[in-house]
Design goal:
The complex is a heterodimer of chains A (111) and B (118). By secondary structure, chain A is an all-beta fold. Chain A has strands spanning 4-7, 10-14, 19-25, 32-38, 44-51, 56-59, 62-67, 72-77, 86-93, 99-101, 105-110. Chain B has no helices and 11 strands. Chain B has strands spanning 4-7, 10-13, 19-25, 31-37, 43-50, 53-56, 64-70, 73-78, 87-94, 108-109, 113-117. The chains are: A mainly beta (111), B mainly beta (118).
Chain lengths: 111, 118
Amino acid sequence: KQEVTQIPAALSVPEGENLVLNCSFTDSAIYNLQWFRQDPGKGLTSLLLIQSSQREQTSGRLNASLDKSSGRSTLYIAASQPGDSATYLCAVWGGGFKTIFGAGTRLFVKA
Amino acid sequence: DTAVSQTPKYLVTQMGNDKSIKCEQNLGHDTMYWYKQDSKKFLKIMFSYNNKELIINETVPNRFSPKSPDKAHLNLHINSLELGDSAVYFCASSHLTPTGGRSGNEQFFGPGTRLTVL
């Protein structure tokens, strides 16, 4: 049974700092991994999707990596800003119906 | 131009009532989903609907039933509401290919419906 864990559960950093959020999964038989952002009281915004054949994806200040064999993904945020404050969720897709979410990392960037 | 929309945004109702939440996507996707986010913010998939094939998470009570009038809509009906049904319900959609394909089954979410059962 697939389990997805995100560490840390919460993170507070000063503005301008580079930071890394971690996502680990127990079953490496996945087709892709997706990172989302959720603002309080809002829906999920897709940030990056990495297919199982890829090692990383970049969008602006965000870079996501995937090491399928070790069951790990990282989301790197460069030069963090107060507007980056949100909950970040990772989800793995194992085909068909099987999308499993982590519990998320709550990020707070202090001005 | 909203990609995945849900109505209503908020729903407050009494225990025992029957209610529906509507979802529409204009992305041309072939698969739609319903998720439940509980008070601890944990997201769990409830249903997946693709080309008239419904896949149900076995943990979902049969009081919950999705109905899809067409590929762009997936509504959620809930009968005999209970206190424990209070949560935020999210609709999502994707273009599903067996192994991910070019779109990679990237999922796009609606804004959510906050259901409160009193």
